[in-house]
Amino acid sequence: MSCSRRKLLKSALSASVAASLPLSAFRFLSPAECKAATGTEGTRWGFLVDTNKCVGCGFCVKACKKENEVPYDAPVTRTWVERYVVTKDSKTHIDSPMGGRDGFTDPKIRGEEIAPADIAKTFFVPKLCNQCENPACVQVCPVGATYQTGDGVVLVDRKWCIGCGYCIMACPYGVRFFHPVHKVAEKCTFCYHRISNGQQTACVDACSFGARQIGNLLDQNDPVTKIIMTERVAVLKDEYGTKPQVFYLGLDRNVR
Amino acid sequence: MKNHVLRPLWCVLAAIALTLIVRHFMVPADFGVNGESFTYSYHRLSNVDEWRDFKAKYKGREYCQECHEENVAETSSSKHQLIQCENCHGPAIDHPDDPETLAIDTSRELCLRCHASLPYPDNPRSRIKAIDPNRHNTDTACIECHNPHNPNLEEG
Fold first, then answer.
1. B69, B9: one domain
2. By the CB < 8 Å criterion, does A122 face chain B?
3. Rounded distance, CA A112 to CA A97, Å?
């Protein structure tokens, strides 16, 4: 059997290339693995608040408290509604009695009577955890009790939290509080138990006016994603660089 | 080396060893960087499932409809069609097993959440018919006259 120099070099090269390939290169990937590797599919929960639709009934706050076992009469809440009344002299009057849990039924704001003729504009702004892409509250946790899930929701491990309160101080939006019963840091979870099981959050379900919506930001056909992509939305405290994932329609400059 | 140098050294080494052993048994196996970054994903992985398994209390209109078809049908064609049953009836939880009956909130305060008059003409609130709670039949419950499932007085 003859072997030319060219043939020997060719075979040696292909043999060394074949030998350098790992076994895993020949493994069949499941569709799920392919999707995860390419990164085009998945879930990133996002929220849309339309302040043009909110009437300040407070059913969302009530539903949230009952759904998530937040003590009903304690002055803490995972979500709340703020009322803004801007008068013609450019003064802004803001209140949120009990987080708006019982709705806004009194024209008085913090006991102050405002003459209807003086009012320039009014709006209600529902607030909740922004589930930031860069959550400051997670960075400061000294024990790894709070974290971001794969689908972008920031959760608190109640068994791990030592209750130091750093995260409550770090959140620029003031959405965290100390749970009076569990004695740990507490926050909105986007109703993780509901959205993971194909339901809407309790506040979205309770809202009769469509002011609150939740959706998957990685799904381009999701109605929420479509609105965020095509309409003029704003986020709260953009300058903090936390990249909030709660988007607002009709946000006013008075809202902080 | 002299004993008085070695003795504290052994103590320190023993303390470090003890810390490592205790840590090994106290820290759960699934605690660590479970995700992309140490900054945001350093946690106990099984906690995600603990949150996922949290019990949902609000069941939604479809669940109510399974038994209370007539009430859902009546409300669905009324001006209150957008309001979830559980906003007034309270969360179903495991009704009818637990609780057997739901405590319905029939207070004036509940109706006033939307129907208390506020002087905000530019606000969507003003599209809802409203009353002044201090003047409109102050001592009477709303449901004495208005049927919440079909609030239109002419029809109801």
1. no
2. yes
3. 13
